[in-house]
Amino acid sequence: MRRRGFIGLLGGMAAASAFPARAQQAGKPVIGFLSTRSQQDATHHTAAFIAGLAQGGFVDGQNLAIQYRWAGGQYQNLPTFAAELVGLRVAAIAAGGDPAAVAAKGATSSIPVVFLIGDDPVRLGLVASFNRPGGNATGVSLISNALGAKRLELLCGLLPGDVPVGLLLNPNSPNAAAHAKEVEIAAQTLGRKLLVLRASTEADIQSGFAALSQQSVRALVVHNDPFFDIRRDLFVALSASQGIAAIFHIREFPAAGGLMSYGPSLAGSYRDLGLQTSRVLQGASPSELPVVQPTKFELIINLRTARALGLTVSPSLLATADDVIE
Q1: pTM of the full predicted structure?
Q2: What are the angstrom distances between the C-alpha of 223 and each of 73, 177, 263, 279?
Q3: Backbone angles phi, psi at 156, to 5 degrees
Q4: CATH 3.40.50.2300 for domain 3-142+265-288
Q5: Tens digit of pLDDT for each residue in 232-275?
Q6: How many CB atoms are located within 10 Å of the residue 279 CB?
């Protein structure tokens, strides 16, 4: 960023009286990064977030410092981490994941919160509306929760007939009930029996797959939840061993050996989170900064996994896929 522009930026931040003075490290603004994930699992997505910040003119270690807090799927720790960041008086909190966003918003009404969530931010109480958030929070909404019905439809297209389908939810997620309702309505419309299971531990996940096998349920929609994302290798292994066709919300699952996914690019959305955070650092008010929504959704199919499960992917479905893993 040019020196003149950077000086103007700092002046704009100082003049933004809606928010009190924030932490500085050797003249650099300090932001918090609050994540539902683990540091190891989020390496690729964190890099995309940092790239988005850089695109907006902020480089970690040069004119910006970042304080990280990782929940590693243990959502109960998020309020404590959020309070720590508030205590540091950071310039903004970037929150990755619905539980992190809710914790950050609950911890402060003055520090800007820039979120990346899968659900509707209005329903979660984060903003008043998408176009005019109206408070101290804005960010990126993947609207992934609303895609549960589409994932069920895609899965049913791969397993025609009256094959029953399972839905695995994390009950600790703030969007679990809304996601369940979305998929249940879709199942009724498609005439499919739906078995709803809940898991908040690895043991629960294993028990859930065992229950699916016991009831001869060979298809599964997996809730878009960071706790599940961290354990994608476990999902892939259980799907293979139990012979269960599962659909997920991000490409990282089929890339790891899962069957298929449908949703926006998570890495691209983390870049958008970085850009939104840079806009807030440049002086934009979260109350007037519209929530960003994805414009493209990608269907990823792992053809090798489909063959291993004894499934035939139709030419028409293959033609609609954005990426086919051979």
Answers
A1: 0.86
A2: 14, 11, 12, 31
A3: -65, -30
A4: yes
A5: 999 999 999 999 999 999 999 999 999 999 999 999 999 999 99
A6: 17
